[in-house]
């Protein structure tokens, strides 16, 4: 359903009801869900009111209340002395306005069209160059439930939904302060998507906030369907494989980011909350780290760091060692690898490329298939194809183990966007390891490190806390210090910044 693009802008509503009816019918031509209801009132029912609404967006219950109110406004008996004239109705609304907070009086015709498309009931009265607009939006949406993408054992189990107002309410319920500011604007001429961004006034860096507002201006002209659209429009490096913003569907994670001086972005119709800027070290932390005991949380975080390196470099390390540096492998292990590779027609690089490629296909199949079938296909497919590849002498058992460990390590990272970056980086690193061995692998690592040091997120260094080094903030990077230390010394470097720092 789209209004006619030829509709005139900034046209005032006519006092002639027939003109308004013809305009609205032209704009919504071929829109079967736009309904028109004509009411007559006044002496001998000679006066007319036109009610326009979109039946797929409005709530029948609210619409029935409105019809009852219109019937009460008109005279119940033809020719009664108490019959209400159009002049009296116009004077009443002109002097007193409307009696409900969800209604207003509009003068522009294009605003009336927008209100109909936003779930309002618009009433045109004959001999009046204005219209009444009552909010009656009702669209079925999910209730607040447990997060599917970010499950936890301890901690809150609620998650954001597609309703923007509900999401803001979930945040307000946890952050009860007037310093929590939320600004909203409408993006796109066709989608009219509601985009909201919030920040904690005392915590956010003013320069970073000003830079964010400057970048967000270009979003207002674009048709936004999801939060990731905004990410690509305002990010610093479009072609970098590493994510520059974080995403969450957990209100507690969004509130923690606000307390840390971050800016959050939400879009109507999507549950994803974008957190910006997103720094490299933050992609290794999970909300459950702060709900577990310090020793266990620190151990898990160190395991994630190990998993990051395994997911990034394990296939390429195996290729470099088996192809160029077999003397670095213990003799017993080398003999075992040689035995398993006997009869394999491909070099280690081609073997790894084939196995990683098919592992990625299985991963995508598990995601795209219906949920009851997807997990079974991914597990059974991996077992069957892996065993068949070994028996057919296409892949060695050690290569199957390497690829499986690489996939498991990538699954242990809390942020899916970082996992996608590692999957992208695997292939060039394997090519370097196959061509130059350990030297090529070192070149790949140095180029990756150089890229990370040059990368910025919303103008902030991507490796902040590590480079430039901030020793006081290392208490929440590789390990998670006790909460009594973290709560006394907030991580946010702007919240308690001393003059001159």
Question: What do these coordinates show?
Answer:
The longest helix is centred in the middle third of the chain and has 30 residues, at 294-323. A hairpin with a 2-residue loop joins strand 11 and strand 12 (460-461). This protein has 501 residues and is α+β, with helices and mostly antiparallel strands. The protein has a five-stranded antiparallel sheet, with helices on both faces. Helices cover 45% and strands 13% of the residues. The chain folds into three domains: 17-135, no CATH class; 164-278, no CATH class; 292-461, no CATH class. Helix 5 (164-174) crosses helix 8 (251-259), helix 9 (294-323) packs antiparallel against helix 13 and helix 14 runs antiparallel to helix 15. The chain is built from 16 helices and twelve strands. Residues 1-8, 75-81 and 490-501 have low confidence and may be disordered.
